[in-house]
Amino acid sequence: MTTSGTVTHAERIRATVVEYLAAVADGSGADIAALYAEDATLEDPVGSAPRTGRAAIAEFYRALEGSRRATELLALRVTGSCAAFHFRVVTETGGRVHEVEPIDVMTFDDQARITSMRAYWAPSDMRQR
Amino acid sequence: MTTSGTVTHAERIRATVVEYLAAVADGSGADIAALYAEDATLEDPVGSAPRTGRAAIAEFYRALEGSRRATELLALRVTGSCAAFHFRVVTETGGRVHEVEPIDVMTFDDQARITSMRAYWAPSDMRQR
Q1: Between chains, do B120 and A74 touch, taking CB under 8 Å as contact?
Q2: Membrane spanning segments where (chains A, B) (predicted)?
Q3: I need a surface site. Which of A110, B14, B32, B63 has the fewest CB within 10 A?
């Protein structure tokens, strides 16, 4: 399916994941939610009540806005219109630094917007530095 | 939920993942399938036709039996009755060595048997050594 000069769907999905981690590090809740489809779902962590729709998703990420953040992609696998990736997120709020390395699973639409996100991690995976 | 002397569900799930990787490295198709619930499903890679039931799952893994194999767990996250993990699998068949590092997502029953497995990787992730 790869032709010189064209961008494959897998490449667009990879680009969205990279944009996502950049937005989690630097963006507002609305910036991050803009990478999602309008009717997307978010379940973070897996087992918690899912949030549906871009407004609820923006609200979820707004909690990050008061902290300094850094992200790093550790591993990314793309198959079909799905991705799974392992990453590190470090947040600093009021002098406290927390680090966690979740594994997220996402699905994407034809425009490589996120249609669902499920985050695999537990509070016991969180480290304070 | 953690009480001294008891084994939590998360710990049992972690043990099943470790057993799974040991069986993928050393076991028969039936050995690996024995870690699955009777009516479990397997989708490897994600996007391919799922296989249902322990017999179909044993058949899937039987393809490994002719090769020397090694596995290594790179990262594991457990939340509720779900796990996601990144691992390396190296197979040697007729002098050819292939290596791939998928991210797998599994769900588990109350006995920590695997009820579903979905493997995120693409043929382009496979390296020949």
Answers
A1: no
A2: none
A3: A110
